[in-house]
Amino acid sequence: MDEHAELASAATPVVVTTGAASVELTNTVRVELTNTAQANLTEATAPPPQALSGVSEAGTPAHAHRGEAGEQWISRLLRAGAVCSGGLFLTSIALEALPKSEMVHVAIDVLRKGAASALLVTPVVRLVVAGTSLGLRGEWRYALYAAGVLGLLAVAVGAGLHT
Questions:
Q1: Helices (DSSP H) in the chain: which residue ranges?
Q2: Is 86 inside any structural domain?
Q3: Are residues 77 and 152 in the same domain?
Q4: 43 and 68 together in one domain
């Protein structure tokens, strides 16, 4: 046998689609083993394929799973905000059927202000979740953009409160 045996392992290319862009990911590992190392190598001590290729059991990279999880959180957040706001508006409309009194009028007013606030706050919270998700995936540039937009929103709200 040769002085060094070569073992080449190439992971199958994985196509990951997030949003509108498809990305093809390929990882290649090349390991050289000496005769003694080859004899001592057993299947029980071999690292899992994920450790060699960086690809998880499902066939997609771990950061792609984090990206999908972030997108799922964002979609849940937007749905929850819309359902919450819609429920508050519908409840205020249902209260219109009750006899007119001061308490009913205050309840309708509070519900409608709450629904409008939920509609305004939902995109801001979405921006926070997106920025955090981007930061966890290592996309610092876009996470900083999200933080910058949040900072500008804070300055605008602060300036609006002082006038």
A1: 35-40, 49-53, 62-95, 102-136, 140-161
A2: yes
A3: yes
A4: no
Residues 81 and 121 occupy one common structural domain:
yes
Query: Would you state the torsion angle of the CA atoms of residues 125, 19, 133, 142, taken in this order, to the nearest 10 degrees?
Result: -90
First to last CA, the chain: 84
- The verdict on 15 and 85 lying in the same domain is no
Q: How far apart are CA 67 and CA 77, in angstroms?
A: 15
Percent of the chain with pLDDT over 70: 58
| Strand partners of residue 55 | 61
For residue 20, the enclosing domain spans 4-49
* Count of domains forming the chain: 2
Both structure tokens of 12 = 């199958």
Q: For the chain, give the percent of residues with pLDDT over 90.
A: 37
Tokens of 88: 């508050």
> Do residues 93 and 119 share a domain?
yes
- The whole-angstrom separation of Cα 70 and Cα 60 is 15
Amino acid at 75: S
pLDDT bracket for residue 160 (50, 70, 90) = confident
Specify the DSSP class assigned to residue 60.
S
Show the tokens assigned to 39: 């004899």
